[in-house]
Specification:
The protein is elongated, with a radius of gyration of 37 Å. The chain is an alpha+beta fold. Helix 5 runs antiparallel to helix 10 and helix 9 runs antiparallel to helix 10. The protein folds into two domains: 19-101 and 138-308 and 349-456, Outer membrane efflux proteins (OEP); 104-136 and 309-342, Outer membrane efflux proteins (OEP) (Single Sheet). The protein is built from ten helices and four strands, in the order H-H-H-H-E-E-H-H-H-H-E-E-H-H. Strands 1-2-3-4 form a four-stranded antiparallel sheet, with no helix packed on it. It is found in: Cell membrane. One of its GO terms (cellular component) is plasma membrane.
Length: 467
């Protein structure tokens, strides 16, 4: 009897050791990146310079006020918090899936009383350990499902990194927009004060017969236009402040470090670009797409395993007695062992449909991975195009402002001496105000482009990444 039990136990152990040795999933190969070998307009950079993915946001952004805002966002932004909680949910699902590969052992106490043909009652009470329908994973079905769930966990972690990078960039852009609003407000207030003074002088000349009513009405119109611009700038500042408060998850604290001038925000460090094969594969969104592809590839193995026999084991060991009072006394040892093998013969195409679905999902995941690569490539190319042209545009805008300031001074001097008309003077004032506004907007665009380049190159999630 003992020998027979040992033989059966050895057979079970051997089968268990074989479980999971067969993997029917296709061999995973990373698809080739469907993009050019180099980014357009990519400058030659020193090999020793750190890449964006190796440069923490706290090193890239030098503005202390912005650093504080980013830290607040990482701690309080709800989108980032949801992404972190999604990781926990997917990790829990993976733990459940991984538990399917192991037997579940329960402690049980059962009792049954059934009538007999002779009019008596049969009683049976059992207590012990039970294993129910433990599947021997001979063809890797459970292992592939577990690997797919693990890949989804990694994908969710990369998704959180992608959310964090976008959050850091969004806070930086909102901060830049708010600084631009402040600069525009200052320019508009100065212009408003200048036009009020101008209207006072025109009215004085009108009262003394030196100017026409047309000149007076033009000056009044120009003043009201400045008031309109001031109201617009104040409204835009309020909207941008609300957007920044939403990003950091709370109202703006009163103890923030002082804001830097708009011009200082454009002084962000230059970033080396590198080759697409090095840059794009380090981006979290591309890594997320690849992990989803790995999960879809593993699901094919699980679908293929459904065509093969499934072996399950059910057993128990413990005590049994017909009298509840005698159950826990000696000599009542009992055990049961019930293996089951099921081979699919006819399922109306269910398994074939599941396999076709798994393959289709894998092909979709390949296309999504390639789309992620191409989208990332375009984002980098767009940011590089901006870096190539915005610097020249900003310098030209600065030169235009210098020219408009000089023109305005000359026209003002000529007008005071009666050598220039009021129309020339008002036109010069309008052009100066427009040039001042354009410079502020151009500075904001240049700073936001550098922030965008940092984001699309995969920076922003290294040190201090976890909220």
């Amino acid at each position: 009897m003992k020998t027979s039990c040992l033989i059966r136990g050895g057979v079970v152990l051997s089968v268990a050791l074989l479980a999971g040795c067969t993997n029917l999933a296709p061999t995973y190969e990373r698809p080739a990146a469907p993009v050019a070998e180099r980014f357009p307009l990519a400058p030659e950079t020193a090999a020793s310079a750190p890449s964006a993915a190796d440069l923490d946001w706290a090193q890239f952004f030098a503005d202390e006020r912005l650093k504080r805002l980013i830290a607040l966002a990482l701690a309080g932004n709800r989108d980032l918090r949801i992404a972190a909680l999604n990781i926990e949910a997917v990790r829990a699902q993976a733990a459940v899936r991984d538990a399917d590969r192991w037997p579940t052992v329960n402690a049980g106490l059962t009792g049954s009383r059934t009538p007999t043909a002779a009019g008596g009652i049969n009683s049976l009470y059992t207590a012990g350990l039970q294993i129910t329908a433990y599947e021997l994973d001979l063809f890797g079905r459970l292992r592939n499902l577990s690997e797919a769930a693990a890949a989804q966990v990694l994908a969710s972690e990369e998704a959180r990194k992608a959310v964090q990078i976008s959050l850091v960039a969004a806070v930086a852009n909102a901060h830049i927009a708010l600084a631009a609003d402040e600069a525009l407000l200052e320019v508009t207030r100065q212009t408003l004060a200048s036009r009020e003074e101008s209207l006072r002088l025109v009215k004085l000349r009108f009262d003394n017969g030196a100017s026409s009513e047309l000149d007076l009405r033009r000056a009044e119109s120009l003043l009201e236009a400045a008031k309109v611009s001031l109201a617009q700038a104040m409204r835009q500042r309020a909207l941008d402040e609300n957007a920044l408060a939403l990003l950091i998850g709370q109202p703006l604290p009163a103890d923030l470090p002082p804001a830097q001038p708009m011009a200082a925000l454009t002084a962000l460090p230059e970033l080396p670009v590198g080759l697409p094969s090095e840059v794009l594969l380090r981006r979290p969104d591309v890594r997320q797409a690849e992990q989803q592809l790995i999960a879809a590839n593993a699901n094919i193995g699980a679908a293929r395993a459904a065509f093969f026999p499934r072996i399950t084991l059910t057993g128990s060991v413990g005590l049994a007695s017909g009298d509840l009072g005698e159950l826990f006394k000696g000599g009542n040892t009992a055990w049961s062992f019930a293996p089951q093998l099921i081979q699919p013969l006819f399922d109306a195409g269910r398994n074939q449909g599941n396999l076709a679905l798994a393959k289709a999902n894998r092909d979709i995941a390949v296309a999504q991975y390639e789309r992620a690569i191409q989208g990332a490539f375009r984002e980098v190319a767009d940011a590089l195009a901006g870096r190539e042209t915005l610097t020249e545009q900003l310098q030209a805008q600065q030169r235009q402002l210098v020219a408009e300031e000089a023109r305005n001074r000359l026209v003002e001097l000529r007008w005071r001496n009666g050598a220039a008309s009021s129309l020339e003077r008002l036109d010069a004032q309008r052009s100066l105000f427009t040039a001042q506004q354009a410079l502020v907007q151009q500075q904001a665009t240049a700073a936001q482009n550098l922030t965008a380049l940092y984001r699309v190159l995969g920076g922003g999630w290294k040190a201090g990444a976890a909220p």
